[in-house]
Every structure is written in structure tokens, then in C-alpha cells.
Design a protein that fits this description.
The chain is mainly beta. About 15% of the residues lie in helices and about 35% in strands. The radius of gyration is 34 Å and the shape is elongated.
């Protein structure tokens, strides 16, 4: 470097130092001028923060001519009003009122102190402390105590950018947060004519380490009549921390009660969602390390953490009560009460629910209404759950879900490392197969995840072998099909070494089997709300299916009287052309196969020959007895068309109060062999076994005279599976039933 450059660099550094000193002096001078120009300004501390220590200081801060970038710090608790009777301030306002701050860019440091008795009236609208916290705003270490925040339709109604009628959200600290709110606590009553959030209305920024204690009530204005010729927004939300979250909420706690009621029926509102932390969360939102200990009550969707979410919910816990109270409506709706999230279209990961999840239901809804963690099927963006747990005695969930483990109270300590994320549930923790397996004697017979079946004689039988006997014929006599001769060898090991001889005594074993409930199922089709005793109960569906299957109708000749199940995607089943036809109906004839199943098998085979001649074979018949003594009758066969072959499976439950009929058809590849591994042979008996037949059907749903293929078929109460196979066209149009989608 030459001398000229060295001199230039040295000169520049000195010049910058001088400029910095000038700036500091100018700043000090400006502040001195501000103090002289504004004699009401409170003193400043060494950080340049104005210290608020009196009610007059607070009035100076909220004044309209104050710089929105002003940094302030509480020097002590500020008692802004006598708080006796503060819950009734909407009708009996206190002595002092204060203006809300419309837009704030600075830092409000509560310094561990409180604002008590805050009151900002606009008519009957009791506004929050801030309207908008901008991106560079911060509110930290502040408590708001003994204050009422309320909105009414008359004072807070407006038209949004789409021309729809909306009402300002009730909240305590701010309406919209784009900045940072940290270590704040609100102890207040927040009442919204429509939406409400305990601390924030809508969060776009960060809320960390905050706590709400008090009450949040939303949808509280049932008397207001909707104006003529106007549209209203179609969703209402309520949450303990915020109404809606599009930012991040971390390590926050709600101890308050959250209640979302129905507003006047003159407004059309499609969705209601209430959550202990947030009523609704967008795809951009995340909640992490949050806890809800307060009760959450809604009328459609309620969750301990979120009512509806498309974002992420991670390491959150709920111990509060979550409850749905259905209101009278003229249409069927979805009602879901969930420990963590009622409508999950995002990810719920490492969450725990120990709170009770209940519903008071008066009429039918679309979905099973109780979930220990979250419902993934209501939201259009299907959600997922990972490494999450709930207490089974607190939430009577109908269907198991992948990523969710239900626990008994004494198991909580054993799974503590999973709650922190130190350990995780893996795919291997979830047994997921379609088959009847040997019954585990330790399995609780009342466990809804199992269906127990008896197979073979009611108890072990000692059988004396007669001349001409063979294992195949003996197995056919006691098990309904000779292919089960392996049960005889299993119980009589000597048969592995030597022949079956006349006069030999062998044991014919009774077998106990179990069908294990698959993960990620959902109820569908016929549902009911009352038990036969007349007792009110949550919606229970008679049938269940995988969530990645459709249900609806298929248009082909044999369709009358049958509804249809089929895969939504090619990977949802071994064959995307598989179709399962089903019917649930009244059954005045009871179990007409009882004691006559062997004779019925021969009549079934005769019908097969009448329709297919020699083009049908590989018959397999089964008869299982369920725990209540009810029978499950099953059979399968293969038919050969000119261009394809089909494996077909039928299963029947013939109760005194209900008939359940399943017929499955699966096209096979040209050179594909027949075996028990085919979807249709596994799914049809499984679905029939889990059908809930406790409801009594008084009137038939379908007329038997419309059933296709009644000729050469001896059972008019049932559809003819051979005629169905003959008429089946895999290219026939399928139309799924419209499914309800939840609050977004």
C-alpha cells in the first residue's frame, strides 16, 4: 500500500468516528428538545426507554400524537381502574377509559409488571391494548389483569375486501400481531360476538412463553338479525391464545376456558372451530411446546390445542376437557371432539392428551365424533400423526390410527421418553395386517380393536376314527372345509409320523381366532345415535373402511340394492380394479343359515353351475362364531371369463335385527394363481366381522324384488354373487358420495 492510500484509509476512519459522535450528540439533543416540547413525557432510563410509573404516564403513551416507534417500560404495576365488578364493565363502565393504540412499532417492556383494570370503549366494543403490532414491534414481560374485552355486532361489523360481512375479533393484547410477543400473561374475560382470541386475534408473527387465564367466549350474539342482501363469512374461530395462527406459537399455556357458541341462525356459518391454543391454524402456522389445561367447548369442531389446522403441532399437551355440544340444525354436520386437533390437515407430532374428550349429540353427523389425538379425514388436505399418545379411558375413539398409541394410566411413566421426543414410535410399533390370527387369551374381550371368533367345534372333541376316514373329510365335518386338516395335525402330533387308523382316538380342537382392527379406518354409510335401549350415544357407524377408499355407487346391471367400495389410488389395494359391494338392511328372517350351512353350501354350488357351468371352481367355505353367539358365513370362488378371471368373496351376518351382506370382486392377471393373500378374500370377511349390528333396523332399505339374478338362486334375501360376477364390468362408472370437509 502506498502512502496516499494509507493516509486515505486513516482519514476515512477518523471521519466515521467524528460522524458517529455527532449522531449521538444530535440524538441526545433531540431527546432534550422532545422533553422540552412535551413536558408530559415521563423520564427515560439508560436504555432510552420511557418509564411508565403512573396513570398519567400511561395516558401519555396511548396519546394519538405519540411516536409509534416509542419504546416504553413499566416501572411498577399500573392500577388503571377500581376493578370491583370488572366483569360487568360492558353495562357499568368504570371511571377511567383509554384509547387503543392503532399501530405500534416499538418495544413495550412490561418489566414483569401488570396493567390492571384496562378499559377501552368504542360504544359497546371494548378494544384491545393494541390494534396492530407491526413487524418491528415487541411486547415482553407484561401482564394484563382484571380487564374485560368484548365485541358486539352493532359496533364491530364491517365489510371485508370480498364484500362479506365480518365482525372484529375480540382479543386482549392486540387484534393482529406481526411482531414478537414474549413472556406475557393475560388474566381477563374476552367475549366476542363472533370470533375471539384470549391474547391475540390473528397471529402472523411470534408468540412465545405466554399464558392466558380467564374466559374466552365466542359466537355470543344470537339475537342479532343479519342485514338484507349481504353475505357473511362462513367460519367462526375461538382460541385461548389466539383466534387464528399463521405464524409461530411456542411454549404457551392456556388455563382459561374456551367456549364457542352458535350465533343467530339468520347468518349462514359453515364451520365452527375452537381450540385451547388456537381456533384455526393455516399451513404456514406452527405450534410447539404448548399446553392446554382449560376446558374447550364447541358446537362442531373442538380440540385441546387447535380446532382446525393445516400447519404443524409439535410437542403439545392437553389435559383440559374437550367437549362438543350439538345445537339444533336443519342439516347434517360434522361433529368432532379431539384431544389435540379436531380437523388436522397438517402434521401432529409428539403430542399427548390426558384430558377427557366427550360429545353431547342429538342427531346424526358425518364422522366418528371422538378422537384421542386428531381427526385426519375431515380436512381436504389429509393430515398425519406421529409419535402421539392418549389415555384410552379419557377418549372413546372407535378406530385406531397409525402414529397414535392409546395408553392406560399406569403406562404413562413407561412412555415418558416418547413424550419428550427422546424416543419415537416407529412403523414396526403398529401391527397392520389383514387376517384372522390365533386369539390371545390376554386380550380384553371388550377391546373394540379386536373381534373374537370361534372356529370348529364349541369345545375340544375326542373323535374315534371310522373305516374310510381321512383327515380331509374329518376337517370338513368339523371345520366346514377339508383344507383345515392342519388343525388336526397340530393337536395330534402322532399324525405327523404315522397313518390315520380305524379305532384311533384323536382330538378335534376348538380354535379361538381374532380379527385385529386395521389402522387408519373411518366409519361410513349407515350411522345411528341411539342404542337399542334408547340411550343417547355418539355417532357410531355400522361399517368401516380404509380412509384411502371411496364409497358410493357403481353403474352396472347388478347394482340395484348394492352400494360400492373401491380404492381411491392405485396403491390403496393390490388391484385398483377391486370392487366390494355391500348392503345393510332389516332382516325379518333372522339367521336362515343356522344349522343348515352344509346344505346351503351345496345349494350355492348348484347356483354357480347354473350361471357358469364349468367356468367356476376353487370354492372355499368358512363359518365363524362371534363372541355374542352370532355367525359369520363366508365363501369364495373363482370364475373364468373370456378375457379375464375373477376371484370373488361373499360374507354374511344374519342377525335378528340386521342383515349385513358383502360381495367382493377382484380381477386377476392372466397367469396369477389363487390364494388367501388376495385383497378381496381378506377384506370382505374382515369388514363383515367388524360390522356393528347392535342397532335395530325397523324398515327395509332395499326391495328384494329389484335384486339382479333371482333366477336359479335359492336365497331371495341375498344378492346372487354369480350373477354379479357375470354382469361385472371393471370399466363401469363409479360415483363417490360427497364427503363433508371441516373448518379451514
Amino acid at each position: 500500500m502506498n502512502m496516499k492510500n494509507r493516509f486515505s484509509g486513516k482519514y476515512t476512519a477518523q471521519l466515521l468516528t467524528v460522524l458517529c459522535l455527532i449522531c449521538i450528540l444530535l440524538t441526545v439533543a433531540c431527546r432534550s428538545q422532545e422533553r422540552e416540547a412535551d413536558p408530559l413525557a415521563p423520564p427515560q432510563d439508560g436504555d432510552g426507554y420511557f418509564l411508565l410509573s403512573t396513570e398519567e404516564d400511561f395516558r401519555w403513551f396511548i396519546s394519538r400524537d405519540r411516536d409509534p416507534y416509542t419504546n416504553v417500560r413499566l416501572a411498577n404495576d399500573l392500577i388503571l381502574n377500581d376493578t370491583k365488578g370488572w366483569e360487568n364493565w360492558a353495562d357499568s363502565p368504570p371511571e377511567n377509559s383509554y384509547g387503543a393504540i392503532p399501530s405500534y412499532h416499538g418495544h413495550f417492556d412490561g418489566n414483569g409488571h401488570a396493567l390492571e383494570g384496562y378499559h377501552t370503549p368504542y360504544g359497546k366494543w371494548l378494544a384491545p391494548l393494541f390494534s396492530i403490532l407491526e413487524e418491528d414491534a415487541r411486547v415482553t414481560d407484561l401482564t394484563i389483569r382484571n380487564s374485560l374485552f368484548q365485541t358486539t355486532y352493532e359496533d364491530c361489523v364491517y365489510k371485508d375486501a370480498d364484500g362479506k360481512t365480518d365482525v372484529v375479533t375480540a382479543s386482549a393484547l392486540c387484534f393482529a400481531n406481526y411482531g414478537v410477543i414474549e413472556n406475557c400473561e393475560v388474566q381477563a374475560k374476552v367475549t366476542g360476538a363472533w370470533d375471539a382470541g384470549g391474547i391475540v386475534g390473528i397471529n402472523y408473527g411470534q408468540i412465545t412463553g405466554c399464558k392466558f387465564t380467564g374466559t374466552v367466549e365466542a359466537g355470543t350474539d344470537p339475537r342479532t338479525q343479519a342485514p338484507e342482501n349481504t353475505y357473511t363469512k362462513q367460519a367462526l374461530f375461538a382460541g385461548g391464545i389466539c383466534r387464528s395462527n399463521q405464524g409461530s406459537i411456542r411454549d404457551c399455556v392456556n388455563e382459561g376456558t374456551v367456549t364457542l357458541d352458535a350465533i343467530s341462525e339468520t347468518f349462514y356459518v359453515r364451520d365452527f372451530a375452537a381450540g385451547g391454543i388456537s381456533g384455526q391454524q393455516s399451513a404456514q402456522g406452527c405450534m410447539e411446546g404448548c399446553r392446554n389445561m382449560g376446558d374447550v367447548t364447541g358446537i362442531e369442531l373442538a380440540g385441546g390445542i387447535a380446532g382446525a389446522s393445516r400447519g404443524s403441532i409439535y410437542k403439545c399437551q392437553n389435559s383440559g376437557k374437550v367437549h362438543i355440544r350439538q345445537v339444533e340444525r336443519e342439516y347434517v354436520e360434522t361433529l368432532i371432539s379431539a384431544g389435540i386437533c379436531a380437523s388436522n390437515g397438517g402434521v401432529v407430532d409428539t403430542c399427548v392428551n390426558t384430558g377427557s374428550v366427550t360429545i353431547n349429540q342429538k342427531s346424526l353427523s358425518f364422522c366418528s365424533p371422538i378422537y384421542g389425538i386428531a381427526c385426519n379425514t375431515v380436512n381436504p388436505d389429509k393430515g398425519s400423526i406421529e409419535n402421539s399418545f392418549y389415555l384410552e379411558e379419557k377418549a372413546l375413539q372407535d378406530y385406531p390410527q397409525r402414529g397414535v398409541r392409546k395408553l392406560k394410566t399406569d403406562e404413562l411413566t413407561r412412555f415418558t421418553p416418547y413424550f419428550s421426543g427422546e424416543k419415537r414410535l416407529e412403523k414396526t410399533d403398529f401391527t397392520d395386517f389383514l387376517s384372522f390370527v390365533p386369539y390371545d387369551p390376554e386380550t380384553d374381550k371388550d377391546d373394540p380393536d379386536y373381534v373374537h371368533l370361534a372356529f370348529g367345534p364349541p369345545e375340544d372333541v375326542v373323535y374315534k376314527v371310522a373305516p374310510g376316514d381321512n383327515l380331509w373329510n374329518i376337517a370338513k365335518q368339523y371345520y366346514g372345509d377339508g383344507r383345515y386338516y392342519g388343525n388336526l395335525i397340530w393337536k395330534n402330533p402322532a399324525l405327523e409320523e404315522g397313518p390315520l387308523l380305524p379305532s384311533m382316538e384323536i382330538i378335534i380342537p376348538h380354535r379361538d381366532l381374532a380379527a385385529v382392527r386395521r389402522y387408519d379406518e373411518e366409519g361410513f354409510d349407515f350411522a345411528y345415535c341411539r342404542l337399542p335401549s334408547g340411550e343417547s350415544c355418539p355417532t357410531r357407524f355400522v361399517l368401516s373402511k380404509p380412509i384411502n377408499w371411496y364409497y358410493g355407487t357403481m353403474e352396472f346391471a347388478a347394482a340395484p340394492g348394492l352400494e360400492t367400495l373401491w380404492p381411491k389410488t392405485p396403491d390403496a389395494a393390490q388391484s385398483e380394479d377391486i370392487r366390494i359391494f355391500y348392503r345393510v338392511d332389516a332382516n325379518p328372517d333372522g339367521d336362515f343359515f343356522e344349522g343348515r350351512w352344509p346344505q346351503a353350501q351345496e345349494r350355492i354350488k348348484r347356483s354357480a353351475a347354473a350361471y357358469w357351468g364349468d367356468s367356476v371352481d376353487t370354492f372355499e367355505f368358512d363359518h365363524y362364531t362371534l363372541a355374542e353367539g352370532e355367525s359369520l358365513y363366508c365363501y369364495s370362488f373363482v370364475v373364468y371369463k373370456k378375457s379375464e378371471k375373477l376371484v370373488c368373496q361373499a360374507a354374511y351376518r344374519l342377525c335378528e335385527n340386521m342383515l349385513v351382506e358383502f360381495i367382493g370382486v377382484q380381477p386377476l392377471r392372466p397367469h396369477e394363481g389363487i390364494g388367501q393373500s388376495h385383497d378381496v378374500q381378506l377384506r370382505v370377511p374382515y369388514m363383515a366381522a367388524f360390522a356393528d349390528t347392535t342397532v335395530k333396523l325397523e324398515e327395509p332399505r332395499f326391495h328384494q324384488e329389484t335384486f339382479y339374478g333371482r333366477e336359479n338362486w335359492d336365497f331371495p334375501q341375498l344378492h346372487n354373487p354369480f350373477a354379479i360376477a357375470l354382469a361385472y364390468d371393471k370399466d363401469a362408472e363409479c360415483s363417490p358420495y360427497m364427503l363433508f370437509t371441516g373448518a379451514q
